[in-house]
């Protein structure tokens, strides 16, 4: 059995060890789909919903972003079409760009957290903020927290994080 066929079979069945074995045997991580488009393995793993295989392929050099992630063959769009929100989250954590207005099945907070993880890990560029555009924050000195309404503080933090995008 050819290594490409072994890789595709391993991805379809969700066998991470077999995927590693095929890649170790020399199968290129960005093999084309027969029509010249690279990324067959990653696209298939995204559509099938195998997040651990997606991570392995990306660690071995698969590209998470195409020039336009709205294309139906982009890894992000393959995961969205397969309704694999866990894989969408994984791709965002690995630095995938989510085009504005593209419905992905994740909440705003889930998207924000995934993007922060990508920035933390150096997989996505950090967003530079203009200090003048940031809201003024009042400092509060407290002796104790008894009776403090933390929902107000939490909502302010969430609003600031949303505005940082």
TrEMBL record:
Keywords, comma-separated and alphabetical: ANK repeat, Repeat
Top-level taxonomic group: Bacteria
GO molecular function: ubiquitin-protein transferase activity
Biological process according to GO: protein K6-linked ubiquitination
Pfam families associated with the record: Ank_2
Entry keyword Iron-sulfur: no
Spans of repeat ANK: 37-69, 71-98
UniProt protein name: Uncharacterized protein
